[in-house]
C-alpha cells in the first residue's frame, strides 16, 4: 500500500493526464442524455426530465475515497492513473432531475436498456430509492463506460433523482458530510436528515398520484359529438390564460376558469395520436366554446380552432 503522499502524487498525475478526456466524456453524456430525454418524452412535457449539468469530482475527494479504500483493504495497491479510475468510477458525474418518481423510474430503466445505450456500456447500477441509504439518501445511480478518443474509455456516473431528492441534499447540507469533507454527522443531524427524507418521499408519492389524476382529468371522453354542439349553439366566449402540451386554461367573462382538454383540440385538428395543445392554442386566444361540468371539473370544449 502506498502512503498518503505517494497516493496524492498518483491522483494529481491522473488529473493532469485525464482531465480533458473526462470533460469531453461529460459533454458527450449530457448531449446523449438530452436526446434520451426527447425520445422518452416525445409529445409530452419535456420539463419532466432535466439534464442538470455535470461535474468532475474534486481531486481531494478522490484522494479521500482512495485513502479510505486502501485503509479498508491493505492488499489494494494504487500505482497508476488506470487504478485511480478503476477504483473511483464516479470522477465524472452527470445528474438528471425528474419531476416525480414515475419519471425517475422511466429514466433509470432507459439507462439500463442495452438498446438505448448504443456505444456506451453499462457497468453497474444501484437503486437507492427502495430501500434508501441509512442516511435517508434516495437516488438511482448508473455507472457507464464511455469510449474516448483521448485514451482508455472513461467511467461516468449518472445520478437520477427527483427534484425533492436533490433538494434533500441541499437542505441537509449532505455535501458537508461526505468522505473527505469538513464535517462529521452528529446523531441529531442523522435523525433530522432521515425524517426530512421520509417526508419528502411522501410528497414525491403524492406528486405522482396527482400527476396521474391530472392526466385523467385532462383527457376525459367526449360526451357530445362536435357537430351536435355546434347545432345547439350554446357556446360562450372564453380567453386562453395558460397553455401547455396536455391542456389549456381558459376564463370566461365572469372569471370562471375551465380546462380545454387535449381530446377537444385533437378532434378539431383532425390529427390522430398524441398532440400538443400549445401547438394549436396560444396565450390570449379567444374561442367560442361549449361548457361541460362534472364532479371532477369545468371544461371548455372549443367549437373551432383559432386562426393564427
UniProtKB/TrEMBL annotation:
Tree of life domain: Bacteria
Residue ranges of every copy of the RelA/SpoT domain listed in the record: 54-183
A Pfam family the protein falls into: RelA_SpoT
Organism for this UniProt entry: Brevibacterium permense
SMART domains tied to this protein: RelA_SpoT
Record-given protein name: RelA/SpoT domain-containing protein
Amino acid at each position: 500500500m502506498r502512503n498518503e503522499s505517494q497516493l496524492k502524487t498518483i491522483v494529481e498525475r491522473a488529473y493532469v493526464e485525464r482531465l480533458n478526456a473526462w470533460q469531453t466524456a461529460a459533454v458527450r453524456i449530457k448531449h446523449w442524455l438530452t436526446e434520451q430525454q426527447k425520445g422518452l418524452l416525445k409529445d409530452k412535457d419535456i420539463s419532466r426530465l432535466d439534464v442538470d449539468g455535470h461535474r468532475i469530482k474534486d481531486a481531494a475527494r478522490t484522494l479521500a475515497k482512495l485513502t479510505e479504500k486502501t485503509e479498508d483493504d491493505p492488499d489494494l495497491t494504487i500505482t497508476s492513473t488506470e487504478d485511480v479510475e478503476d477504483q473511483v468510477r464516479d470522477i465524472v458525474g452527470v445528474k438528471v432531475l425528474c419531476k416525480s418518481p414515475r419519471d425517475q423510474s422511466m429514466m433509470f430503466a432507459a439507462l439500463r436498456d442495452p438498446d438505448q445505450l448504443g456505444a456506451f456500456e453499462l457497468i453497474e447500477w444501484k437503486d437507492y430509492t427502495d430501500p434508501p441509504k441509512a442516511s435517508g439518501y434516495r437516488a438511482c445511480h448508473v455507472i457507464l463506460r464511455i469510449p474516448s478518443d483521448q485514451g482508455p474509455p472513461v467511467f461516468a456516473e449518472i445520478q437520477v433523482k427527483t427534484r425533492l431528492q436533490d433538494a434533500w441534499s441541499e437542505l441537509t447540507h449532505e455535501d458537508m458530510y461526505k468522505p473527505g469533507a469538513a464535517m462529521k454527522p452528529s446523531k441529531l443531524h442523522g435523525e433530522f436528515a432521515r425524517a426530512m427524507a421520509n417526508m419528502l418521499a411522501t410528497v414525491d408519492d403524492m406528486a405522482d398520484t396527482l400527476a396521474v389524476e391530472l392526466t385523467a382529468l385532462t383527457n376525459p371522453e367526449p360526451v357530445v359529438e362536435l357537430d351536435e354542439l355546434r347545432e345547439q349553439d350554446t357556446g360562450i366566449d372564453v380567453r386562453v390564460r395558460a397553455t401547455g402540451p396536455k391542456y389549456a386554461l381558459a376564463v370566461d367573462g365572469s372569471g370562471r376558469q375551465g380546462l380545454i382538454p387535449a381530446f377537444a383540440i385533437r378532434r378539431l385538428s383532425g390529427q390522430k395520436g398524441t398532440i400538443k395543445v400549445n401547438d394549436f392554442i396560444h396565450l390570449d386566444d379567444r374561442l367560442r366554446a361549449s361548457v361541460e361540468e362534472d364532479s371532477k371539473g369545468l371544461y371548455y370544449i372549443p367549437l373551432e380552432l383559432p386562426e393564427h
